Amino acid sequence: AGAAGLAGCRADFPVFRHHPGLVFLDSAASTQKPQQIIDAIAEFYAGGYANIHRGAYRLSAQATDQFEAVRERAAQFFKAPAAESIIFTRNATEAVNLVAYSWGLRNLNAGDVVLVSEMEHHANLVPWHLVTGLRGARVEAVRMTPEGRLDLEDYAQKLQLPNLKLVALQHISNALGTIHPAKQLVDMAHRHGKPILLDGAQAAPHMPLNLSELGADFYVLSAHKMLGPSGVGLLIAQPQHLRDMPPFLGGGDMIREVYTDRSTYADLPNRFEAGTPAIAEVVGFGAALAYLEALGMENIHAHESELFQYAQGQLNLIEGVDLYGPESSSEHSERAGVLSFNVRGAHAHDVAGFLDEANICVRAGHHCAQPLMRALDVVSTARASFYVYNTREDVDALARELRDIATFFGENL
Ligand code: PMP
User: Fold this and answer.
1) Which secondary structure element, helix H or strand E, spans residue 363, and what is its range?
2) How far apart are CA 172 and CA 120, in angstroms?
3) Could you list the residue ranges that cross the membrane (predicted)?
4) What is the Å distance from ligand 1's center to 279 Cα?
5) Binning pLDDT at 50, 70 and 90, where does residue 2 land?
């Protein structure tokens, strides 16, 4: 039902004209771009480009206004606690690193614990390994249940760990599509007086967010997974945390006064935005947010849920195909538009290779989630993921090819 408003949007994506018959099922890695975003970037370069925050001439002031307007738009789009606590980074990964190095180096001490989960993307693991390593602290992980959910009993127990300083969990799993109960995760952490970072790289593109209501201390995401250009991410934080945090990267734009031997730093948000940012890409991200707003995040979520249900039903019918992640029904949707699977007897890379020959793009591998793969006891999976431009015909094409692939490998088992 929610798909009605999205029905025409596929025509906005030129990639499908350049590659007729393309079945693009890898939006969890990065999404395709509509013409409106491509145009916004081209128009900015052609019609009003200059460096920002330099203010000496009108062209720069206009570029600054356009750049800062995206911060305001993002604050409204995500219902952020404050526009000044939205920091532009390169991507979600850099946003986690910002928190790890700035907050972590200041607040973690020998013996302290950062609590992650077995399901995390490496982007929400490795920065914590690096920084706890520097501080003599350590990382503990909440377990995954056999169905692919966070084990909330284990979470409740680990929240009681002495010396726990920070919780860092994903909102939606990129490998399995599990939608975690974010509000509950935040409230549980706060009941124990612990700050929590949520990795929203897979949630922000796919559902309406109200970050003021959610109350996470830190929330990170990437523009390229939500129709925007590569090279832009966001850290959205509670302002009081950022006010207490030292800068992460140093350089131009983030200072108040600089001497040869010391410097003082600008207020929010500039303190965390050293150097010339991805100006045109941020402007492009603004156009992506406008585009998503026009489609409606509720409609997008409904469209993906519907496609997911349909795909799960189709793939469940194929002998020799195993699906991973919690079963989802329409009454109880705890899955985003991500479907992880294997064909019995085949390596996921071979499955992806066969699908590619049929013009179907899926990802194969460990999905930057090696601990999760270990917990599932598989080396890799193939993953189909959906976005606004996907249709039931895309799912039908996937199911048709998988039937052939499963038959082929079934006969050769
Ligand atoms: N977290 C999750 C859950 C992701 O899916 C991804 C992207 N695969 C990231 C973090 C990192 O995003 P980026 O590579 O854009 O920094």
Assistant:
1) strand 363-365
2) 9
3) none
4) 21
5) very low
Q: Identify whether the C-beta of residue 322 lies closer than 8 Å to the C-beta of residue 341.
A: yes
Find the mean pLDDT for residues 377-388.
Answer: 97
The one-letter amino acid at 315: L
407 CA to middle of ligand 1, Å?
Answer: 34
Q: Is residue 9 flagged as an active site residue? A: no
Q: Which residues, at least 6 apart from 249, have a Cβ–Cβ distance to it below 8 Å?
A: 272, 274, 275
Q: What spatial distance separates the first Cα and last Cα of the chain, rounded to whole Å?
A: 41
Mean of the per-residue pLDDT values of the chain: 96
Q: How confident is the model at residue 334 (pLDDT cuts 50, 70, 90)?
A: confident
Q: What is the ipTM of this complex?
A: 0.99
**Amino acid letter, 305:** S
Which of 99, 144, 368, 385 has the most ligand 1 atoms within 8 A of CB, as the residue to mutate?
Answer: 368
Helix (H) or strand (E) holding 404: helix 392-411
The SS3 call for residue 343 is: strand
Closest atom, ligand 1, to C-alpha of 172? 3
Q: Quickly state the pLDDT bin for 30 (edges 50, 70, 90).
A: very high
